[in-house]
Design brief:
Structural class: alpha/beta
Number of strands: 31
Mean pLDDT: 96
Distance between the termini: 55 Å
Bound molecules: adenosine-5'-monophosphate-propyl ester
Shape: globular
CATH topology of the largest domain: Rossmann fold
Low-confidence stretches: none
Number of domains: 3
CATH class of the largest domain: Alpha Beta
Number of helices: 20
Strand content: 15-25%
Length: 631
């Protein structure tokens, strides 16, 4: 159960073992979990197909490992602390036994509504305890959950529902976010106009509105759980049965459904959680992510609960009612491990130190960051003002596809260097490849970040399109999983992630494909074509810069911009709003019709003097116009 490495020397030993004898290494870890039937083999894999199986033919249910197995020893220990958006409202605390009962009751409700093993359930909810309960209840009965972040639009949700051919949506009437309330059920209703697969919608009463309820389709959460038993036998799952689908953006227009499975995901999220955060039994751990993203799945819900930890879930935003909210919550609940995104740190930095200095923060032991590279200035601010120079910062690099943290410090055990994620976790074998796809063995180098051996929580497929998984991750460099990131390795072997090398933009730690945003912009009637690139943004890390071609240059550019932004909000959601929209008469294209994004990127970055070779362009004049009109 205790999977923690206790010193850096032990890390070095374990790392060596994990490479030399992978089966022994993972076998010792996997053994500590509850299996209904033991696995027959640790791992079968080939990166060509790809065909990856962990804990082969083992039978288990991840929720028995999150809940049931803790009941004897930790039944009265807090599993979940929920902090509401409004600090004046009461917080909620559930012990492991209470959470177990709530999950079981809701699992029984799902069954009563006709949901069975293998069905897909889309969850579109606020950051409230019922979201965690819904996720675990699906896993309990073997339904595949697909959480859609509650900031996505009706259009984006409909795409995901249709791709997953989901049977049910679980949602709420609305959500609280800072000073605002957002009508979720209305968005669901709109999405469902174009979805045929949904039979039932369960609605949690979160903000006390009276949304439209469709007869025979929609049911209130409280009615659904009425009279349900507080025990529900867990469905026995195969290690490789699907646990969830989580949609994420890539370099093509359509988000893909990354698939994770019961056995491997369980072992790796628990192992990485315990080692990276080094929680003691009585610690309070808080990850500020949303359960709508992989960070919330792995490190609010599964990793902490599998480990018997106390996990905090926060409904609100860092700046409401003021920019001290995070720190107030840390003091209020005595948070020991605090895990957030560089964007949040940079946003709070902009409000000055006073908000942090008003709180003691003396419970903090470990700080974490995730989602995007952290710049040195933000790292130092976090280290000095939040961590008081006594808390290590774990800069955790990983992805939706990796399921768990891959490269990171381990609590205070590892050497730390600002803006460096550091060393790989045991079991993870990163390599840097050069342009030709050859491994660069030395240190003090830079290359494409790939992984050369599977780990238990590697994605297994992209839902209903296995070939897309092969092409995206396993075809660039034969025999390797390609991350899409570029990285440096310093003289000591520590990794520093530079950022994406594909057409993916990382805005506030959220991934968008340039093609996905272009498709959204092109859905506006006045647009003929567009090209989107990222540019450095002080708070968001990257911002979205769109070059847009219309039939004729719009006379009222501000109105045209507002309309295009509105279309993007409709198609994807507010999180994908382009920051800058430049109207142009044409895009720089090669003779084969390919847009030369390198040029557009340089202009957006304010480096028009470093465009490089433009001789292969069909119409080089277009570049002068673009430079002159740059925003
Ligand atoms: O570019 C890397 C960046 O986020 C990408 C993964 O995004 P997503 O699947 O949405 O998952 C985010 C949360 C795990 C990566 O390809 N990224 C993630 N963590 C870091 C990072 N870049 C630099 N440093 C990190 N710690």
């Amino acid at each position: 159960m205790d999977l923690r490495i206790k010193s850096f020397e032990e890390y070095t030993e374990k790392y060596a073992l994990s490479v030399e004898n992978t089966d022994q290494f993972w076998g010792e870890i996997a053994e500590t979990f509850t299996w209904n039937k033991p696995y027959e083999k640790i791992c079968n894999w080939d990166f060509e197909t790809p065909d990856i199986k962990w804990f082969v033919n083992g039978k288990l249910n991840i929720t028995e490992n999150c809940l049931d197995r803790h009941l004897a020893k930790r039944g009265n220990k807090l599993a979940l602390i929920w902090e509401p958006n409004d600090p004046k409202e009461r917080f909620v605390r559930y012990t492991y036994r209470e959470l177990y009962e709530k999950v079981c009751a809701f699992a029984n409700a799902l069954k009563a509504q006709g949901i069975k093993k293998g069905d897909r359930v889309v969850i579109y909810m606020p950051m409230i305890p019922e979201l965690t309960i819904a996720v675990l209840a699906c896993a309990r009965i073997g339904a595949i959950h697909s959480v859609v972040f509650a900031g996505f639009s009706a259009h984006a949700m409909a795409d995901r529902i249709n791709d997953a051919q989901a049977n049910m949506v679980i949602t709420a009437d609305g959500l609280n976010r800072g000073a605002k309330q957002v009508p979720l059920k209305r968005v669901v209703d709109e999405a469902l106009r174009t979805c045929n697969s949904i039979e039932k919608v369960i609605v949690y009463d979160c903000v006390g509105w009276s949304p439209n309820m469709v007869d025979g389709r929609d049911i209130w959460w409280n009615d659904a759980i009425e009279g349900m038993a507080k025990d529900c036998p867990a469905e026995v799952m195969d290690s490789e049965d699907m646990l969830f689908i989580l949609y994420t953006s890539g370099s093509t227009g359509k988000p893909k459904g990354v698939v994770h499975t019961h056995g491997g995901y369980m072992v790796y999220t628990a192992y990485s959680f315990q080692n990276v955060f080094q929680c003691d039994e009585s610690d309070i751990y808080w990850c500020t992510a949303d359960v709508g993203w992989i960070t919330g799945h792995s490190y609010i819900v599964y990793g902490p609960l599998l480990s018997g930890a106390t996990t905090v879930m926060f409904e609100g935003v860092p700046t409401y009612p003021d920019a001290g909210r995070f720190w107030q919550v840390c003091d209020k609940h005595g948070v020991n491990q605090f895990y957030t995104a560089p964007t949040a740190i940079r946003a709070l930095m902009a409000y000055g130190e006073d908000h942090v200095l008003s709180y003691s923060l003396d419970s903090l032991k470990v700080l974490g960051t995730v989602g995007e590279p952290i710049n040195e200035e933000a790292w130092k601010w976090y280290h000095i003002h939040v961590g008081k120079e006594r808390c290590p910062i774990v800069d955790t690099w990983w992805q939706t596809e990796t399921g768990g943290i891959m490269i990171s410090g381990l609590g205070d055990l590892s050497p730390m260097r600002p803006a460096h994620a550091g060393f790989p976790l045991p079991g993870i074998q990163p390599v840097l490849l050069d342009q030709e796809g050859k491994e660069i063995k030395e240190n003090k180098v830079e290359g494409y970040l790939c992984i050369k051996h599977p780990w238990p929580s590697i994605l297994r497929t992209t839902y209903r399109d296995h070939d897309r998984c092969r092409v995206t991750y396993f075809s660039h460099y034969k025999g390797y999983y390609f991350t899409g990131d570029g990285a440096k390795r310093d003289e000591n072997g520590m990794y520093r992630i530079i950022g994406r090398v594909d057409d993916v933009i990382n805005v506030s730690g959220h991934r968008f494909g340039t093609a996905e945003i272009e498709n959204a912009i092109n859905a506006n009637g006045i647009v003929i074509e567009s090209a989107v690139v990222g540019y450095p943004h002080e708070i968001k890390g990257q911002g979205i810069y769109a070059y847009v071609v219309c039939e004729s240059l719009p006379e009222d550019r501000e109105t045209a911009r507002a309309e295009i932004v509105e279309t993007v909000v409709e198609q994807i959601g507010k999180i994908a709003k382009p920051e800058k929209i430049q109207f142009v008469t044409g895009l720089p294209k090669t003779r084969s019709g390919k847009i030369m994004r390198r040029i557009l990127r340089k202009v957006a970055e304010g480096e028009s003097d470093k465009l490089g070779d433009t001789s292969t362009l069909v119409d080089p004049d277009v570049v002068d116009e673009i430079i002159k009109g740059a925003l």
